[in-house]
Amino acid sequence: MSGPGFSHDLRQRQTQNLVLAPQLRQSLKILQVAALDLRSVIQEELQANPTLEEQPMDGESLDKLNDAPPDPEGGSAGDPDDSARHEEMDFNKQFEILGKMDQDWRDHMAHAGGAQPFTSEDAERRQHFFDSLVSEMSLQEFLLQQAALIELKPQVQEAMKQVLGSLDDRGYLTQAPADIALQTGLPYEIVLEATKLIQSFEPPGIASLTLADCLLAQLTAKGRGDSLAARMIRDHFDLLSRRRIPELARKLGAAPDDIQLAIEEIGKLDPAPGRRFADDSNRVVVPDVIVEKDGEEWKIELNTDYIPRLRISSTYRDLIAKGTLSKQEKDYLTERMRSGKFLIDSIEQRQRTIERITREIIKAQTPFFEKGVASLQPLTMTQIAEIVGVHETTVSRAIANKYMQTPHGVFEFKFFFTTGYQAESGAAVSNTSVKEMLADLIAIEDRSNPLSDQELVARLQEKGLTLARRTVAKYREELGILPSNLRRDYT
């Protein structure tokens, strides 16, 4: 019986990959971020690109001030045959490539899976998946979840909130328990109890005042509280921070090799256990677009207060024009100018795309803008993409993290995209409007005899909407409304 055989051969295989150039990645990032975050992105580029400068707020328009960089051979970037122009990004074409790949994949899956009916619930699930963003848990939320498992006295609960509020993004205390007690008027013993309780939570090292305390807590949690590494931190942290191995060996009576192993053990600990969690999501929302009624028309105003206006520095253009630079210096500055011009074009393209999408949302959701949430119409990203002339992935990126101020309040852009149902009258009704109807029906119900989900189905049927009972139950749960047996008022 022969053993397993091994062989080598050469095979040719053809694969198709889309490699995103750094500039395209940058343009996608700029398209996705909100106005507040865009400022940070631009500031980073200003620091990295010497040919970019911020335009004074009362300056001329970006179009007039931002001439393209000169050609390395002396030509103008405005010339028809300029190579820089040929290298600039055609945004719609690039997004079309990305979109085509998405469409090809969907077509492949459609043929592979055979013809299957695509119901309104399928569309809703797809849209929900397409729109959803995963929100990570913050450190405070994680600690509060652990605190909820313990029965605490009211004063300790209050002290715990104060202690949690004093944690920085690393998970360290920014105030000592004595200072917290002094500021809040809570007894010091209560604040200390709450602090020690939080310090017993996961992750180890949380709510420490110093780095040494944090590292010691982690070693203690591992059962290494009496180890050489712990003694080193507890008694000689200053020498440890300076890596004075011979002095540490002499003071601790240990071999240098053992000191080195202890240092390696300490190096595996987490000096900032709070940073593994997401930042607290409670943040001020700044609308990216403001929509107001102006006579009979709806006026769109893009919020540019937080977006620096950029231009290419004339100083570097003049340096190149003088012809005194070496080829290497000239090539570097030209490349930086092209990069800066691309950034400016990306920002302008972002603003134009958001404005066009907003305009089409207004057209599709005019009943909402006129009357309110109950009049929201079914709308998908695909519909807007077809009108604007881009792929739905471009729409998805453009509306991500964006908010719109309307006469009825500030709404996330995704709010306007929702699947729906067709009423018996033929009118389309969005699922958001259906939820509004459900909330209204429950608000006016008889509390001694609340409406069951089946009865809600019947009431909606009277309004010309046919929904399954499980759909009504799902919408009720999404609204945070209890089932009928728990809504009953027995008084």
Query: Which range does the strand content fall in?
Result: 5-15%
Question: Strand arrangement, largest sheet?
Answer: 3-2-5-6
Global structural class? alpha+beta
Number of alpha- plus pi-helical segments? 23
Mean pLDDT: 76
Largest β-sheet summary: 4 strands, mixed
Lay out the secondary structure:
Elements: H1 22-32, H2 35-48, E1 52-54, H3 62-65, H4 83-87, H5 91-113, H6 120-131, H7 139-147, H8 154-165, H9 177-184, H10 188-199, H11 211-221, H12 228-241, H13 245-252, H14 256-267, E2 289-294, E3 297-302, E4 310-312, H15 314-322, H16 327-364, H17 366-371, H18 381-388, H19 392-399, E5 403-406, E6 409-412, E7 420-422, E8 428-430, H20 431-443, H21 453-462, H22 469-478, H23 484-487
Parallel strand pairs: 2-5
Antiparallel strand pairs: 1-4, 2-3, 5-6, 7-8
Helix pairs in contact: 1-16, 8-10, 9-10, 11-12, 12-13, 12-14, 13-14, 16-18, 18-19, 21-22
Would you write up a description of this structure?
With 491 residues, this protein is of the alpha+beta class. 53% of the residues lie in helices and 7% in strands. Among the domains are: 139-276, no CATH class; 422-487, Homeodomain-like (Arc Repressor Mutant, subunit A, Orthogonal Bundle), CATH 1.10.10.60. The chain is built from 23 helices and 8 strands. β7 and β8 form a beta hairpin.
